[in-house]
C-alpha cells in the first residue's frame, strides 16, 4: 500500500501549531464571549440586583422574545439609585447592540463603580402596543461594595449566593 502524503518533522510542527492556533481563535471568538455572558447574567446580574435594590426578570410574551433576550424590571426600591432615577416596575432597558442583559448589567457595573450612566428605557405596556416611546434616565453613580460569591449547583451551573460582610 502506498502513502498519499509524507510529512517531515517541520511540517508536522507547522500543522500542530496551525491546529493549536485555530483552537485558540475559537476560544477567543466564540467561547470567551459566551462565558462572559453567562457570568454576567447568571452570576453578576443577581448580585447587582441585590446591591442596587431592584429585581429583574425575562418577559414571557412571544412578541417580546422575537426581538432577542431582554429583561423587565420587576421591582425597584424607591430609595435605590434606579428608583431615584425614575425607573419603575415594568420598564424594559433597550438600545444595547450586543445583548440586552449583558449591556444593561455592564452599565450597572459602572454605577457601582461610582460613574453615572444614562439608560434608555421603555415601559412594558408601550412596548407591547408597538410604541417606541423610549425615555432616557440618568442613574447617578454610587460607589457600592458589591461582593460576589459563587458556587456550582447540583447541575454544575454557576449560582450566586448572598454574602453578608456586616455592611
Describe the protein.
This protein has helices at 9-52, 62-65, 81-85, 100-112, 124-128; strands at residues 54-57, 72-76, 91-94, 117-123, 135-139, 150-152, 158-160. Residues 62-67 and 161-167 have low confidence and may be disordered. 43% of the residues lie in helices and 19% in strands. It is an alpha+beta fold. It is built from five helices and seven strands; from the N terminus they run H-E-H-E-H-E-H-E-H-E-E-E. The protein is elongated and about 80 Å long.
Keywords:
two-stranded antiparallel sheet; disordered C terminus; 167 residues; three-stranded antiparallel beta sheet; elongated; 7 strands
Radius of gyration: 22 Å
Distance between the termini: 76 Å
Order of helices and strands: HEHEHEHEHEEE
Strand content: 15-25%
Uncertain residue ranges: 62-67, 161-167
The count of β-strands is 7
Shape: elongated
What is the residue-averaged pLDDT? 78
Strand order of the largest sheet: 3-4-5
Which structural category fits the helices and strands? alpha+beta
Q: Count of DSSP helices?
A: 5
For the sheet with most strands, the description reads: 3 strands, antiparallel
Percent helix, as a range, is 40-55%
Amino acid at each position: 500500500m502506498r502513502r498519499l502524503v509524507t510529512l517531515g518533522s517541520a511540517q508536522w510542527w507547522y500543522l500542530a501549531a496551525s491546529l493549536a492556533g485555530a483552537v485558540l481563535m475559537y476560544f477567543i471568538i466564540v467561547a470567551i464571549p459566551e462565558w462572559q455572558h453567562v457570568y454576567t447574567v447568571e452570576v453578576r446580574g443577581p448580585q447587582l440586583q441585590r446591591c442596587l435594590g431592584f429585581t429583574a426578570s425575562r418577559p414571557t410574551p412571544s412578541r417580546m422574545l422575537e426581538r432577542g433576550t431582554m429583561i423587565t424590571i420587576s421591582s425597584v426600591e424607591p430609595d435605590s439609585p434606579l428608583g431615584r432615577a425614575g425607573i419603575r416596575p415594568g420598564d424594559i432597558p433597550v438600545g444595547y447592540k450586543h445583548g440586552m442583559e449583558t449591556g444593561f448589567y455592564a452599565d450597572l457595573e459602572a454605577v457601582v463603580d461610582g460613574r453615572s450612566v444614562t439608560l434608555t428605557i421603555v415601559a412594558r405596556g408601550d412596548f407591547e402596543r408597538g410604541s417606541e416611546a423610549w425615555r432616557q434616565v440618568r442613574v447617578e453613580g454610587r460607589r457600592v461594595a458589591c461582593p460576589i460569591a459563587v458556587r456550582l449547583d447540583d447541575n454544575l451551573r454557576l449560582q450566586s449566593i448572598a454574602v453578608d460582610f456586616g455592611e
